[in-house]
Every structure is written in structure tokens, then in C-alpha cells.
Known about the structure:
Elements: E1 5-11, E2 14-19, E3 32-36, H1 39-48, H2 52-56, E4 59-63, E5 68-73, E6 81-86, H3 91-94, H4 106-115, H5 123-134, H6 136-145, H7 151-164, E7 169-175, E8 182-191, E9 198-201, H8 203-227, E10 232-235
Parallel strand pairs: 3-6, 4-10
Antiparallel strand pairs: 1-2, 4-5, 5-6, 7-8, 8-9
Amino acid sequence: MKNEINMVGFTGSTLTILEGKAPDPQNPIAVTITGTIESPYRWIQKKIAGDKEIISSSFVSINRNIGSILLVMAENHPLKDTVVGILEFHPDFEKWDINTGQQATSHDLAEKIKMNRSCFKSKDVAMKLVKDLRSFTAKVNKELESFKDDRANYAMKRIQVVETNLPESFSLLVPIFKGRPKETIQVEININADNLSCSLISPEVNDYIAEFKDKIIDEQIKAIEDIAPDLVIIET
């Protein structure tokens, strides 16, 4: 039986000939992966830990401001592989626009809560809040009606009414960052007394984000150092 010969062609002064059913030659491509903050550690753990040659030509770059960890392998090779881990907000957290200043009407906020009841520990609590928000504007307008001719006290009364018609806060059960478990967070409804628009704020979340970012990056640095102590780690 004759072998099949496939003349692929010249590359410079080299002629490539494939015999039989050998696959066509493929040009190598660099691996570029972006994942959660733990991705560089997991790659090192499963792929290159213990390989002194790769470790010696690789490095990790830390950026605390944006919450990222970059692993660069074979740094001097034109096809060097990279793995990026990023600390990103989870979509279930972002949808609430907490501490963003985004404003909505009480009815729009009520609709958002209704459609995202799964973010509450209790659906009954969520629907009670929906009911309160839907009747909020009507209550305020009714209570202010008798004060509209009293110019001296109208502004003060408006602020008092706005502050006392809704619960001071409510709880959400959501993951704040991708790849992390759900957290119970306290959220306040901030009402603009001028136009009665609503926004969501949470000092607790601000504190958590600031503290957690440094904590998780420190944990990742230690984990990488434990399995690849010779790997260069740089903070930028």
C-alpha cells in the first residue's frame, strides 16, 4: 500500500511534507484568559507550579486600585501566555445601583423590587416594600395638601413627611463580587425631598468593598507564594 504524501509548501527555505494522514501544521497562538480574581492562582496551581523553567520566566502584577491580578508566563516569548483575574461586581448586585446616585421614581423602584424578589430573604418582606413604595407618593401628596398655604412650615413639613413614610432600611441577600458567596447587606432608601425620587445607599457596602478588596488580594498573594515561592510578584 502506498503512503499518501501531501506537499504543504515552502516556508522560507524549508519544504514541509506530510505523509499519511498527519494533520496540517498549525501556528501556535498565545493563551489569553480573563476570569475571577482567583484565576491566576488556579492556573499556577494546576499548570506551572513546580516547573522551575516556566516560573523563572514568569511574573505576577498586582493592581489594587482596580482590583486585578495579572499572570504573565514566558515573558520574553513573542507568544507569552497571560491570565488575568479581576474583582468585578456581580450582576445581581449591580442591578440595584447602590451608592451610584442613580435615581428612580417610587413606582419604578417598586417594580424593580417586585421583579427581583429572589434577592430578598423573604418574598413577603419584598412585597410589603413594594406596596409601601407604590402608595408612597399618594401619601406624601395627601399629607402635604393641608400645608400648601402655610409657606413658613411647608418645606419643613415636606421633609418630615418624606422621612417618615418608608422603612429606614431593608436587607438584600446578593453576592457583591463575581465568584463570591451571597452577603446580607443593609440598604437605605434615600428620598429627594424636592422631587420625591428614590436612590439606594449603603455605608455598609462602601466599607465592605474597601476592606474586601485588600483582603482578597492579600489572600491571593499568599496563596501564590505558598505554591510558587520563586515567582516574581510586583505591585503597580
